[in-house]
Amino acid sequence: MSKQINTIQSSAVPLQMENVDTDQIIPARFLKATSREGFGKNLFRDWRYEQDDETQPKQDFVLNNPIYSGRILVAGKNFGCGSSREHAAWAIKDAGFDVVVSSFFADIFKNNALNNFLLPVTVSEEYLKELFTAIEADPNTIIEVNLPEQFINIVSSGKKASFDINSYKKTCLLNGYDDIDYLLSIREQIETFEHSHS
Amino acid sequence: MKTLFEKIWEKHVVQTIEGGPSILYIDRHFIHEVTSPQAFNGLNKRGIKVFRPNQVVATADHNVPTLDQHLPIKEELSRVQVDTLKKNCAEHGIELYGLGHPFQGIVHVIGPELGITQPGMTIVCGDSHTSTHGAFGSIAFGIGTSEVEMVLATQCLMQSRPKLMRINIDGQLNDGVVSKDIVLYILAQITASGATGYAVEFAGSAIRSLSMEARMTICNMSIEMGARCGMIAPDQTTFDYIQGRRFAPQGEDWEKSVAYWQTLFSDEGAAFDTEINIKAEDIEPMITYGTNPGMGIGVGGHIPGLGEVEEKEKPSFEKSLAYMGLQPGAAIKGTKVDYVFIGSCTNSRIEDLRLVAGFVNGKQKAPGVEVWIVPGSKQVEKQAIEEGIDKIFEAAGFILRQPGCSACLGMNEDKIPAGKYCISTSNRNFEGRQGPNARTFLASPLTAALAAITGEVGDVREYWKN
Ligand code: SF4
């Protein structure tokens, strides 16, 4: 799993659905593991298989459609709502995605994604539509996600949009830093705070 | 002039990172078996111990059986998860209210019930319904496992300050309308993403008139609007609820605490980014018909027709109704139900069980309907038995099970079978939430109790009159 994100050029998988909740991304019955690995195979489990049977993939589900592939998942608004389970971010990352694009992310999911070097890119409704249209017209459409310069680009048409990310998180993603290292480095300050905090 | 949120937030900021989040000090951290093991693994890998074990409380709830809890857990993965929590808590000196402990229960039920949850605190848990604790006037929100690790390691969390929203509900509630209906009504108005990015304060005379347990139900479901957290300013109702509980401040400490808590309210004229006003009189008993909690209607109403749905929302809407096996434009009243689930951190407290018992007393459950009543904690269970509520349920043909999350998320064996309809007092009607292909109607304990008796969705107000 890559612990750094910079510029990604890849085709994308279009998931044209709104309010995709984390129970869909990874159903609760797969949360019994005590490690972080291996959740990718159960990503969108109930949309992917008939009767929970891995030998019966649902033909109409986009992840089962061989014409779509890539490291970028493009999804409808309010992606990642519901349960705080970080397993959702683990599953998406484990299935080979480094970027999720949507017009709107649920808060907790966004934090979980960032903490796992899965980049959530928020674009406007219009741009999201452009993306879906471009991918539908040509499943091999290359999308460029440029973190240093904070833009996303449909390479064939040159249609670009910028995206926001706070500068602290951006530095973390570019360099593979994690928050815990930083917090551990200021433990003394935390202890001082505790003395004045009753 | 400050809002309630700002008063608490500012008191907890250890540092603000330039162009980044704030480092927020966390007073209480709840953990459970499902979202904590990877966090402990992380600590072990770093070779560090839990920083402030006395500020962490653990319980086993998500993945526990709700029958025969004295026996070893049958399913191996579940057993390993519960045992891992036990081991981690022992290694790091964390208090665990595990299976068999008289304080065990759903994490958001036991925190308040033990007096651990108090006004003015920052509270987190690796569970989105941590927003429940905001009912006491605290900043309480759910976090992911990496953040659980962060708090275990440093008692701090990196967070960006959310925007602020206030929802005012004024007036007198109609008969048969309870706090679950209020929150389902708000959701139907503002949708399942209507408060994303916000901390929401619930205010107004209708909120003030509610008991603490009813307030918890509302804050519990603020996450269903996408809110970072929900909160209600503490008042005498809050103080009375906390006083005398096991971990409540005592003696001189109590006086000091109350004096501080009384300063926790949004000052007159304090600014909110968004404000919404709702008239309590407009709220009916509510029920959801779709697959997100914002898809709710009054029980007397109709499922929206295709013409009433925005063009771009049609695919999701149609998919949702197809999953539910319901028709656009149809009346919801009279829809048959197969299961009734009364439980979850939304509605499994003693007042909920009393409400249900009061309604069903002397009545019989409808033939063919399965009714599961799952108390939120061992203490709720004990009290229900002391009050004879279990006998009322038994006589009606219901089963009072043992505490846990149960069919709220269907992680243990309590799953609703595929295609079956369940009216549930829980908080999520997502596809597959209660079991693969299970169909969920979210409603209040009262509306659920009515369905248990009649076998269909009905309007509790029609019974109220008699
Ligand atoms: S009862 Fe349901 S919503 Fe509440 S903590 Fe358990 S699984 Fe989560």
Description:
- The complex is a heterodimer of chains A (198) and B (466).
- In chain A, helix 4 (107-114) links the parallel strand 4 and strand 5 (119-122).
- Chain A is 32% helix and 16% strand.
- Chain A contains 8 helices and 8 strands.
- Chain B folds into 2 domains: 4-274, Aconitase, domain 3 (2-Layer Sandwich); 285-462, Aconitase, domain 3 (2-Layer Sandwich).
- Chain B is built from 16 helices and 19 strands.
- A 5-stranded parallel beta sheet of chain B has the order 5-4-3-6-7. A 5-stranded parallel beta sheet of chain B has the order 17-16-15-18-19, covered by helices on one side.
- The radius of gyration of chain B is 21 Å and the shape is globular.
- Chains A and B meet through helix 4, helix 6, helix 7 and helix 8 of A and helix 2, helix 3, helix 5 and helix 11 of B.
- The structure holds iron/sulfur cluster.
- Iron/sulfur cluster (SF4) is lined by residues 61-62, 106, 108, 127, 129, 344-345, 405, 408-409, 426-427 of chain B.
Broad CATH class of the largest domain in chain B: Alpha Beta
Largest interface: A-B, 53 and 67 residues
Number of domains of chain B: 2
Name of the CATH superfamily of the largest domain in chain B: Aconitase, domain 3
Q: Might you state the CATH topology name of the largest domain in chain B?
A: Aconitase, domain 3
Mean pLDDT of chain A: 95
Structural class of chain A: alpha/beta
Oligomer: heterodimer
> Based on DSSP secondary structure assignment, what is the total number of beta strands of chain B?
19
Radius of gyration of chain A: 18 Å
Structure summary, number of beta strands of chain A: 8
Helix content of chain A: 25-40%
Instruction: Summarize the biggest pleated sheet of chain A.
Output: 4 strands, antiparallel
Q: What structural category arises from helix and sheet content of chain B?
A: alpha/beta
Q: Report the portion of residues of chain A in β strands.
A: 15-25%
